[in-house]
Give the backbone structure.
Amino acid sequence: MSESRLAPAWDRLRSQGRTALIPYLTAGYPSAEASLEALRAADEVADIIEVGVPFSDPLADGPTIQRSTFDALREGMTLAGTLALIERAALTRPVVVFSYLNPILRYGLERFLRDADALGLAGLLLTDLPAGSDPAVESAVQASPLDLIRLIAPTTRPERLAVAVEGAQGFVYLVARLGVTGATASLAAGLEASIAQVRRATPLPVAVGFGISTPAQARTVADQADGVVVGSALVDALGERGVDGARAFLVALREALDGRTVAR
């Protein structure tokens, strides 16, 4: 296995005392060209970028991401198209592909890992692949140049958490609350305890996502976590206000995480 492509980003952030901004964008939403420009806008201020592969049965996602996924599928976006979009964007930040397992298997796992490696992608997060559920798939990703990012629920018991983080790479993605993705008015109670529990289980950086909707919420999470993932609120901004609106929201998040401005 080669050295993690995410490690230099985390090392840099750690040396600067900063928290990672990790925006999520659905590939192909609201159109291929707008998606391309949104990815480039994210590249200006983000530390790591998550790119979602549209899928017809996004069970872990709430209304915003579901809508963006279905719109992208109607526009003809596919996994192959997602990789082509990332290549066109020529991003300078590490990219993590966020996908359900089915599109990867249909494309071909080995083919995907080969093509993703050729693009220099940094990681893969498989939403519906619990740790231990498919050792062959997990081992293939872990042996590749892409990091296998684990998704951890806040209700995970300590004994299960030990299994879930075993073999995790790059960072651990902690779900901030129960349920599907989506913007929320407030952060979940007990989040600080959940972060502390994950930290006790793994030395990997901990990024928190699901439900972080405002720069103020991002700042609060940044006091506890190594990274903050913002998806639905960003996708909403892109859909409602276009690329300029998405860019402005990203800048506000960046400022909040860096302790300069907290928009409310």
